[in-house]
Amino acid sequence: MSELIQEINDDNFEQVVLQSDRPVLVDFWAPWCAPCRALAPVLEELAATRADRARVVKINVDSSPISAERFVVRAIPTLILFQSGREIERLLGAVDRAEIARKIDHHVDGGGANGEGNHGTRTI
């Protein structure tokens, strides 16, 4: 894992994600998932360019099935953006960098600062 993206698990999900004081993008993934691996460099870049405003973390659905079940993750990769302990955006599949950046920026830069605004799921 990188210095910018923390690998989390069922045990620390609550503390790292739901109790965070800033938005957290959670990548629900597995090592055997080719689209998940393809998405990794995109997430690295987003973590680097938004490190001062949001956090990016990864959770392996095979080793942390409780969190995946709790948030009804049925396919991977699934990206869920959390703010103030709530899910505010969800992206399914190998989403492009621009789409992920738009979702983060919308909430981080004021469009949905309190979890308000557009809530949507997009499958690609």
Characteristics:
alpha/beta; Glutaredoxin; six-stranded mixed β-sheet; 26% strand
Describe the structure.
It is a single chain. The protein is α/β, with parallel strands linked by helices and 124 residues long. It has a single domain (5-123), classed as Glutaredoxin. It has helices at residues 13-18, 34-49, 65-70, 97-108; strands spanning 5-8, 24-29, 55-60, 78-83, 86-92, 121-123. The protein has a six-stranded mixed beta sheet. Strand 4 (78-83) and strand 5 form a beta hairpin. The radius of gyration is 13 Å and the shape is globular. It starts with a strand and ends with a strand.
Principal-axes geometry comes out as: globular
Structural class estimated from helices and strands: alpha/beta
The total domain count is 1
Terminal-residue CA separation: 25 Å
Strand and helix order:
EHEHEHEEHE
**Total DSSP helices:** 4
Q: Provide the helix percentage.
A: 25-40%
Summarize the structure.
The protein is of the alpha/beta class.
Please describe the topology of this protein:
Layout (H helix, E strand, L loop, with lengths): L4 E4 L4 H6 L5 E6 L4 H16 L5 E6 L4 H6 L7 E6 L2 E7 L4 H12 L12 E3 L1
Parallel strand pairs: 1-3, 2-3, 5-6
Antiparallel strand pairs: 2-4, 4-5
